[in-house]
Amino acid sequence: MAEARVQLRNPVKGKTGPSVDRAKYEMVLKEILAALPKAPPGITLEDLKREMVKRVGKRLRPGSHDWWTMAAKLHLEATGEIKRTAAAPQRLVRAR
What we know:
Number of domains: 1
Number of helices: 3
Strand order of the largest sheet: 3-5-4
Number of strands: 5
Largest sheet: 3 strands, antiparallel
Strand content: 15-25%
Distance between the termini: 35 Å
Order of helices and strands: EEHEHHEE
Radius of gyration: 13 Å
Shape: globular
Structural class: alpha+beta
CATH architecture: Orthogonal Bundle
């Protein structure tokens, strides 16, 4: 039986996201949403990446924590689940 996959989206018009393992994606999605605040100032992208290493740990092996965090972050931006604040450096908050 083939493994379940999910097609990720990208917030940049004309770009598509990768097709990824559904179980890994759902784990990363759950942890990203748990790590993100609901109100500004939000969390920086670098802090989110560090938080994901702590939260996910060895459950993501094999696979890069940074790659999975970025792929899921872009998908969540494309679907409107999270958004960037206007501040620099890039900060993220939950949109819903």
